Amino acid sequence: MSSLAASEVSSTQTGLPRVSLLQFHVTEDKSINLKTARRNIEEAARGRKGERKPELLVLPEVWNSPYATEAFPEYAEVLPSVEEGGDMRGSESAEMLSGAAKEFGVFIVGGSVPERDGDDIYNTCMVFDPRGVLVAKHRKVHLFDIDVPGGITFKESDTLTAGGGLLTTFDTGEGLFGMVGVGICYDIRFPELALLLTKEKDVSMICFPGAFNMTTGPAHWELLQRARAVDSQAFVLTASPARATEEMLEATKKDGKFPPYTAWGHSTAVNPWGEIIGSCDEGEAIVEVEIDVSKSMQMKTNIPTALQKRTDLYSVEFKG
């Protein structure tokens, strides 16, 4: 099931911290999705025999619900807030993620789930620390509204509201990954987000749970990850749902409540030089990689683009 990282050297030998990207199938049954996510978290958190266990896990975008605008309101949950201390009782997805983070002592970037807040529905990522505490929450800023003739038409704004917080980060400490940024899927198309995460928060890594499709995936999935890694001079991590099998698609077309969505898969990790250091194909997988955050610092020192901006001619500013 697992996909090995590019490095052949065990992290037990190098002492480098590890991350795991979780890629699994999503169904119309939320209870099954919760069990699948929990099972994958447990498998990833236990790590490989003889190797250092991962300190951070990343789940896919919209893992507890079908990826369909009509499904989002039905599957949406009232999620806890960071400011209020993260009361998980209103959300079974949050409760599961928090409990798993605490049980296995890992950071969990919880992919994303539909969130209900009053009359609004958001596509939201929750981040839990090894104590099970909610330390960050990112509402997808850029909604996936596209129309590619002969390819795909999808409009998240039919049911979703765009998030208003741009610079979502959490601190893992100097011994792990330092400051980590969060975006969701379509957010990766906007270099301003990655540039501002570096400028304002000095991130060493950015996580983008995503669900690219069979039109945009082959063309842009890898390209955008490598571009954002070079832009931000940071590691970029993505986790996608596994692509539905032909049998699953046929069953959905025949008996499903919502239209099928075919994810590209290929969860990937890219280093600040723009090199792929871990990836998988379209099926279920756990991608394990080592992260040497000094590589981010080296890039920022050796190619100091942050210090070479022509602010007399242009600027990328955070408006708060």
UniProtKB/TrEMBL annotation:
Annotated ranges, domain CN hydrolase: 17-293
Residues in coiled coil: none
Annotated GO CC locations: mitochondrion
Q: Which GO terms describe its molecular function?
A: omega-amidase activity
Q: What top-level branch of life does the organism fall under?
A: Eukaryota
Q: What CDD domains does its record include?
A: nit
Record has Hydrolase as a keyword: yes
**Entry's PROSITE patterns?**
CN_HYDROLASE
One of the GO BP terms on file: asparagine metabolic process
Which keywords label this protein? Hydrolase
**In its UniProt entry, what is this protein called?**
CN hydrolase domain-containing protein
What organism does the record attribute this protein to?
Triparma verrucosa
